[in-house]
Specification:
38% helix, 20 strands, alpha/beta, Molybdenum Cofactor Biosythetic Enzyme, Chain A, Rossmann fold, single chain
Length: 506
């Protein structure tokens, strides 16, 4: 594992770029014709880096009309998230859903003269998901509806808040603990062995070639390395200490992607928020020149692209602001099976001795007796919520299969059971708060368990990595909902969030 400092030594220093500079650039471009980023989020954890934006779990034209018109702090917002949950679907279903979302978004925008849309395909910072299928479908649908062709697909999986960075065209995970300061190529991590979305390459150009089965060769990929992203730093260093001008980088980025056509893949080095903001300025310049771009990105890209400040983590008081919390216990639902989730669950159960623990046995769910088993589970959860917080988790032994379709079927069966438990509990005895751990888990709990249709992303419960949704309608209105990705945080993170929200912590 190389040291991050050694890898970065070959590149210029980052350029300090205030979020306001990006926001002003976007505002200038949108003054005559407002633009909204429509973010197709393949699981709900993509909202963890943003704040005060609308999120939809349904995508009919009327839902988009609500999101485009909804005002927060007296202003319409320049991005809206759509929870597609396509990472839990097979490729054919994912394609249908992406097309439906794009068509309906464009139909809603057509009702507002001058409103322009750009599309973001938000996916995993560890490279799991339906790539290149999703950006392909989005691009094809935009062309079919509007006649507009996509010149380039900008691929930015980096998530510095969670330790995912791209340097020299290679995507890495930062080490923690004894490995702090070291970088592991992402193809050498457990995420690359995902049963449905595994991969072999950490070099992004080769990853594109691998996942596109050669349709895009590695040498056809445009790589925006840190020499380009940080061109302003290099320019200042060579001009007798003159002030750094971020527009130097913006021009360099726009120049570098000028040749993009017919959905050319474009990958970007990102190590920090400043790099993301430099990229945002460059993309804005490229689009101002007429380039039509589509984005395939990790969570923090949208925050930087719209010039949003990094929101400080919410306190427990802020999480309940505007609502009166109930005296019931909170519900913590854990579905993810990655190693960090299991460690977080163990830390929570050991520290929160007052919480009741209910395990959902996956083997039983796959048997004929599942219905009666779920009845018993709901009764237990409701009874325990009357006394305090309840931790509901699926059994930790992951049932593995070499068949991707069968893996998805098992995942759906388990998720359906978790949803049923949450929904029936909500209707019987609403909890004080709900935390859902894991991508598919948090998506299904939001859309089906809590029946959230429209919500506002209020901000992070931990710096940049755990999202608080405020449901604005439905039976969960007034109940803080925490979307907690399976693969983020340290061993203490789940306990830290629960402690903030609980009124029963020992």
């Amino acid at each position: 594992m190389p040291l991050e400092a050694d890898v970065l030594a070959a590149f210029p220093a980052e350029v300090q770029i205030p979020a306001r500079l990006v926001a002003d650039s976007l505002a200038a471009s949108s003054e005559a014709f407002p633009r909204v980023l429509v973010v197709l989020d393949d699981d709900p954890t993509g909202t963890q880096s943003v704040s005060d934006l609308p999120v939809l779990t349904r995508w009919e034209v009327a839902d988009f009309a609500w999101a485009f018109a909804h005002e927060i702090n007296g202003q319409r917002q320049c991005a809206v998230y759509v929870l597609t949950n396509t990472r839990s679907l097979d490729p054919a279903e994912a394609a249908v859903r992406n097309e439906e979302v794009v068509r309906n978004a464009l139909a809603a925008a057509a009702r507002e003269p001058g409103l322009r849309l750009s599309f973001v395909s938000r996916s995993d910072s560890t490279l799991r998901g339906h790539y290149p299928l999703e950006p392909d479908v989005i691009a094809a649908t935009v062309t079919a509806v509007s006649g507009e062709a996509t010149d380039g697909v900008v691929i930015v999986p980096a998530f510095p808040d969670a330790g995912r960075v791209t340097i020299g065209g290679v995507h890495y995970m930062r080490g923690t603990g004894a490995d702090a300061g070291r970088l592991t190529p992402v193809a050498e991590t457990e995420f690359a062995r995902d049963a449905s979305f595994g991969f072999a390459n950490s070099e992004m150009a080769k990853y594109v070639e691998e996942k596109s089965h050669g349709r895009f060769s590695a040498d056809s990929v445009i790589v925006l390395d840190l020499n380009i992203i940080r061109a302003a730093s290099s320019s200042a260093a060579s001009s007798d200490g003159s002030a750094v001008d971020p527009q130097v980088s913006a021009k360099a980025i726009a120049d570098a992607i000028d040749s993009a056509t017919d959905s050319t893949p474009i990958v970007a080095d990102i190590v920090s928020e400043n790099d993301l903001r430099a990229l945002a300025l460059g993309l804005e310049e490229a689009e101002r020149r007429g380039k039509k771009l589509l984005y395939r990105v990790g969570p923090p890209f949208v925050r930087a692209r719209i010039g949003q400040e990094i929101r400080t983590e919410l306190s427990g008081e802020e999480a309940y602001a505007g609502n009166t919390p109930s005296n019931a216990g909170g519900l913590i639902v854990v579905g993810s099976h990655v190693g960090v989730t299991t460690r977080q669950l163990n830390a929570l159960t050991s520290q929160h001795g007052a919480a009741r623990v209910v395990e959902i046995d996956v083997d039983t769910l796959l048997c004929d007796s599942a219905e009666g088993y779920l009845d018993e589970t709901v009764e237990s959860v409701v009874a325990d919520l009357r006394r305090g917080d309840v931790i509901v988790h699926t059994s930790r032994l992951l049932i593995k299969t070499g068949d991707a379709a069968e893996s998805l079927r098992i995942a759906r069966t388990v998720s359906a059971a978790v949803v049923a438990v949450v929904n029936r509990t909500l209707k019987t005895f609403p909890p004080r708060f709900v935390i859902a751990k894991g991508g598919i888990t948090s998506s299904d709990v939001a859309a089906h368990g809590l029946q959230i249709r429209h919500a506002i992303v209020r901000g992070p419960m931990l710096p940049g990595i755990v999202s608080l949704w405020e449901p604005v309608d439905g039976p969960a209105k007034g109940i803080p909902y925490i979307v907690f990705a399976g693969n983020v945080g340290d061993d203490e993170s789940l306990a830290q969030v629960t402690r903030k929200l609980s009124n029963r912590w020992p």
